[in-house]
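2024-03-11 09:14:02 DEBUG pipeline.ingest accepted 1 chain
2024-03-11 09:14:02 DEBUG pipeline.ingest length=140
2024-03-11 09:14:03 DEBUG pipeline.predict start
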Amino acid sequence: MLWIKALHILFVTSWFAGLFYLPRILVNLAMETDATSTGRLLLMARKLYRFSTMLMVPAVLLGGYLWLGYGIGKGPGNGWLHAKLLCVILLIGYHHACGSLLKKFEKGQNKRSHVWFRWFNEVPVILLLIVVILVVVKPF
């Protein structure tokens, strides 16, 4: 089980690196006016989104295996896991929202400002904070 936990943490950490950096690229895309720079940023964002998706899948599968295979979080007094799973669902949605926003940039249809993207960039930080507190403290 410890190997599964270690791999889960490794893939989650790597996935979050993408969740932290991809919206930052979107901030830069919202500010950019030069076509060459925009093209370079779009290329970076596409590659990062694809790579982050490949990291998200094993992170979620390993977490599911820890839950269903080993029974982590099952039984009474494990409400923290339900809250964590809600956060994971929100993070998966956030990940796909990043992909949707990237497609809008690729089509030249972005209508949002760089300020909006700066706030959007904070969502995974807040969710990570909540998840870590839930997993470590297990408040309920």
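2024-03-11 09:14:41 DEBUG pipeline.report DSSP finds five helices and no strands in the chain.
2024-03-11 09:14:41 DEBUG pipeline.predict end
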